Predict the structure of Membrane-bound O-acyltransferase domain-containing protein 2-like.
Amino acid sequence: MATETISACTGSDLLQPISEITNLPLDQVNFVVCQLCALLTAVWFRLYLHPSKTSPFVRHVVATLLGIYFALFCFGWYALHFLLQSGITYGIMILTGVEHMHKYCLVVALGYLSFCQITRVYVFDYGMYSADFTGPMMVITQKITSVAFEIHDGECVCVWLKFRIHTGMKRMPSLLEYFSYNCNFMGILAGPTSSYNDYIAFIEGTPYRHRDLETKGKVNGKSRLNDPSPNTEVIRKLATCFISLLVFLSVCKVCPVERNVDDDFIATTPFYAQVVYLYLSMLTTRPKYYFVWTLADAINNAAGFGFNGYDSNGLPRWDLISNLRIMNIELATSFKVFLDNWNIQTAHWLKRVCYERCPYNPTAATFLLSAMWHGAYPGYYLTFLTGIVITLAARAVRHNVRPYFLGSPALKFVYDVITWAATQIAICYTVIPFVLLSVGPSLKFYRSWYFCIHIGCILLAIVLPVKPRHLRLKEQQPAVQPSLESTDSNSNQKQKAT
């Protein structure tokens, strides 16, 4: 058993005794220990390498070197892919023009990631999650393309104004800044993705001025501290991690997802019981993501990264780079609400690089890009192709049916209950190929359900009309145009005054 565990991990075997004691794969032990070390290091980084005590250069160097060390500890020489992918795309940004660099970087970074995912799945070990070095590469791919798009949006005169305002960059990052952003110790293993502008502002010690948040930090006319402590938020998120891990370890084996495609289960279980079991089995898979993403968020917060202004009560918000909102996920009453609160930073990335820029069929294009980004397993593509159909149907229902239930609180409550149940079942139905990975078991499950949700959603999307996105945007344009012109005018007045 020990030999198998060691051979399944390409990283350090220093923690092999802990792996044997806990009966957990060595790569998982390495990951958790490195993340806990990163949490402690983040506290030290915030206290002793604070921007008021040291230079951005030192902070960049330390963050990068620690990130590379953690990557080598977890993945061994596979971690060199992180540096190689970043180096190649940096060269592309240097050599190509601003007008097209974002397209080249997207193609090269996504192509490099896909090559690594395909070889890992089909050359080394199909279904192997141990030593999955492509996980960090997925986040780095997002960061690489985000930088390229931000530079393009900041300097290309042809880009939409709203992109230039919110995400534009005015200069090319240095090589150190680029590697620090991609490979810093806070996000090298589990992310999350953040805006390059936000990261650089954090390193330089100007995140609050950068985001113009001082005015929001006033309560009863009194200014709040400009550097709020993240300790309370970090403790809260660590408590969430502990509960999520406890739930996952205690219930994940009670309702295995594979039972949904077991012949005896399908033959002997009533359909309503199969629906309930599907929900429960998929519900038990989510806490591991809650644990990983919340811990990653806590690490960044502990370093002082993630402050997002103050709420209406004057309390600091630390959700700038948060990746999920658990209660919104579990109580979601629409497919869109669920997706908007699950893997939030990835959703923002997909929206920035694809959905808001694709002139035709942006929904289908975004789902297909997400499938390519996730990996080479056929189950991923079945999930996202199903997601396209369900998204179109959910949009049609919302536009055509929801208005009839807004007349009274009672009707609205009935609508919310029905849509909650429908959303949760639709999510489980959509995501099960993502967990099963293979085509055979996934299609077996859908056949056992007679493809009923596929068929129902296609009929809803056909019967209930919804205006195409470009027509909806055209209707909104008269309302948006004055605000854009006002922004241009204010910008010109400021330039003249300067």
In short: The first strand starts at residue 218 and ends at 219. The chain has a mean pLDDT of 86. The longest helix spans residues 469-497.
